[in-house]
Design goal:
homodimer; 339 residues; alpha+beta; Arc Repressor Mutant, subunit A; Beta-Lactamase; Enolase-like, domain 1; 5-stranded antiparallel beta sheet; 3-stranded antiparallel beta sheet; 13 helices; 19% strand; DNA-binding
Chain lengths: 339, 339
DNA sequence: GCTGGCACTCCGCATCCGTGAGTGCCAAGT
DNA sequence: ACTTGGCACTCACGGATGCGGAGTGCCAGC
């Protein structure tokens, strides 16, 4: 009973603080939420919560503010999923359905997410390593220069130019195409290196050097570029919450320019259907110690195509944000999965 | 003689203000730059310059600050081109030479530009409309679904999925490929619509519906997407100069998310070898009235592949920025032109 | 037309309350 | 064992005040 009320107080603090961005005091709390107890009682509970490290006061005799730990408890135990309104769902659907290709899907998703949450949104392109080869094309640009184009089942197109030692005539290019095509078609990208390793030995002698070179180029493309692509939107939303420049905003903007960091944020949360939240110091990147990340994966359960999520101040509407991220990820997953 | 000194004073004001970000007064000016006249004289000149609208004072009895008009005069008549140091040139070259493909070139350029200028950098991908077709590929995904891939001479790859009414067997796909390939190979993209308009009539009856559909899809891809791609970097640099949030930074960040706006900024300055500067209110976008844009085109003179540039506060090191933009554009142009 | 001198303006900074919101603690009530 | 009202205390915030200094405009003299 007592414990229950304390949690209720914490929830009230979080909700009020998220709403007003001002430290919340005992009196206002007792009034606005019908806690049916006096401010004095609330004060006692607050003292206990502060003792436990869930809230803190910016300075003596100011209201209380949730700590990272407080938000964590809120997210884990106190927040109920806030379903989107039918209007929102329809908006998502219709907005995404207008997309004409993969690029467009990703760009639309990221903008949508940024608008819905009023935060910074990040969407990862379908991961190469998790998709498989739909088609391989080889085009000769000049006799000694080949262009390899690889198309994945998610619609991603990767290209790479490759120099061959001797000139390759049309027959050779055609042969190369068929050799690679039949060897790789349908393979998952992670399996490609193993598959092409001993490919040269299986072809006639004349073709061997070409296959070797092309295989090497392909390998290089796959290794040198586990580089996943990302789309970003809504950075302007950062100005909504950040209060000072050099301490808060700059480091975050800098972090957002680092693909590696962003990928890390998304990567650890890649299970579709499961929205993960990382709050403040739970982010191991220093620059993001005052930020929270709400992320999930999209695609088939157990085999995510990529991740998406939003980043905002710890003071954030978690239920709403989580709902939005979840919903968009689902739609995008359906859209790309159906292909 | 008199006129000369006034200009010299203006230059000194601009240089000092860019350096210190503080209104500059007559005394400091007379000391730091060897003008060989007394502060009082400088004051007279300043009064004249203010009269002419080149400088202004934030409040009575503060130093002077250049106006947009003042910067304009400075850029047009007072700034000498500041050549990059050999070290910088080498850095640019080696940094760009590591690029492995078009995407990489663009990404590297934009980061490089942001670092060199410490501003926000924008680079446009080689414009579709100005490049020509190197190769067209058609892949059948499912019998009724074709994937069109178009590769341009700048290395850009555009793709589009296309549904055909009846199923297309391998023979048909091969025919389609050869018809389109021979019709379009080497054509400039702007000429493609005209070329494919009457293509259906030239092929055997059986093939006609397919050609019609595919041609329509291609057209759609070209029309619906004059959409040029852009890369952006260095937004964190905005925090260096902007002083308040909602009035300065937010609108700029918002503007930066609008492709259309960015393209406009670059588009008007697309002549390679010619660096254009747009200062403050010369930008017709309201949000950028306190910003300056330094831009140029890259590629062959008279036939630019795309634009690139940086955006920063009007209080900016114009000579240095212009030199950097110019240099990077040249290298990128060479790199892509050589292909 | 340049220069020194002088009075003037006004920003920035520090200082100084007064106010009020909010707290912690305690003693009394249930 | 909780809850409650009362009370003294703390401290950020905002407005008022005062001061120093940088910078200006103007004028008279060189």
């Amino acid at each position: 009973m007592l414990e229950d009320r304390r949690l209720e107080v914490l929830r009230a603090i979080v909700e009020d603080f998220v709403l007003t961005n001002e430290p919340v005091g005992s009196k206002a709390l007792a009034e606005r939420h019908n806690l049916r107890v006096s401010p004095a009682t609330v004060r006692n509970d607050m003292a206990a919560l502060e003792e436990g490290g869930y809230i803190t006061q910016p300075h003596t005799s100011a209201g209380r503010v949730p700590t990272d730990k407080g938000y964590r408890l809120f997210v884990d135990r106190l927040s109920s999923v806030k379903p989107l309104s039918p209007a929102e769902r329809r908006a998502i659907q219709s907005f995404l359905e207008g997309a004409i290709d993969l690029d467009d899907v990703v760009r639309r998703s990221v903008r949508l997410l940024a608008q819905l949450t009023r935060q910074v949104a990040v969407v990862q392109y379908p991961s190469l390593s998790r998709s498989s080869v739909r088609h391989i094309e080889i085009v000769s640009l000049t006799p000694a220069r080949l262009l390899l184009v690889m198309i994945t089942d998610t619609g991603r197109v990767e290209q790479r130019i490759c120099e061959v030692v001797a000139t390759a005539d049309d027959q050779i290019v055609a042969d190369l195409r068929s050799v690679l095509g039949s060897a790789l078609h349908g393979r998952r990208l992670v399996d490609v290196p193993a598959t092409i390793a001993d490919l040269p030995e299986t072809v006639r002698l004349e073709l061997r050097p070409y296959v070797t070179t092309v295989a090497a180029a392909l390998l290089e493309a796959l290794v040198e570029r586990p580089e996943e692509r990302l789309a970003l939107a809504g950075t302007a939303n950062l100005t909504r919450s950040a209060l000072d420049f050099t301490d808060t905003l700059r480091p975050v903007l800098e972090a957002l320019e680092e693909q590696v960091i962003l990928l890390k944020l998304l990567g650890e949360a890649s299970d579709p259907g499961m929205v993960t939240v990382r709050i403040g110091h739970e982010n191991d990147v220093d620059a993001l110690h005052t930020a929270s990340v709400v992320a999930t994966g999209y695609g088939r359960t157990g085999a995510a195509l990529g991740g998406m999520g939003v980043l905002g101040p710890t003071r954030m509407d978690y239920p709403g944000t989580m709902a939005a991220v979840y919903a968009v990820a689902r739609y995008v997953g359906d859209l790309l999965g159906a292909d």
